[in-house]
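Recall the central idea of this unit: under ordinary conditions, the amino acid sequence of a chain determines the structure it adopts. In this exercise we apply that idea directly, starting from the sequence alone.
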Amino acid sequence: MLGVEVGYSGWRTVDPSKEVLREFYGLALRDKEYAILSHCWGVAENGEKEVSFEELAQMVTMSRRKRDEIRGRTGYMKIIDTCRQAHKDGLEWAWIDTCCIDKRSSSELSEAINSMYQWTTVGALGYTGTGEALFVLLPSGLLGVGHSKELIAPKVVHFFDSKWNRVGDKKQLASDLSKLTRIPVCILERGLNCARPSVAQIISWAA
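Accordingly, the structure predicted from this sequence is:
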């Protein structure tokens, strides 16, 4: 994806057969290390717009006018920034729900929803953006978090501000995150192996 973007920004011709999306299943997926972006989808009323699976899949073959419109979206910059950070962390792949799930297919969407925890567990790193609605920097400097699976499933979760400056990881911020989410510190630090919460407790974390 980064190579494709470099070509567009330099007004160079990009090979139309270039891949920006690739699907992995079973053992191939299990053996891959990838970053996952946890974020809140853009709000159209605020001038924000995401990039869909279909749009990203057609990036190298669509008209320049349409491509430039997509490249100007806030959602596209999230994709590029995530790929840049993944590259810095030595990862070849990244997964973002807005553009990596084909929502035209009800079966794929259903599978994605059911497999979300597994995918976030397999992923090597989780990135969260504090400059978005899901992760809010409060005056006290604490982080308000709405989704629990992104905090529990990945072994490593890095928090960034809106300019992609690193704030810390979930172990460093475990005490503050626990106060806000009610997820025990030991689970944030060591995962579900350190405790066996009830279904009611898990549901309360997502409330």
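Strands lie at 34-38, 93-96, 125-129, 131-132, 135-137, 143-145, 157-160, 166-169.
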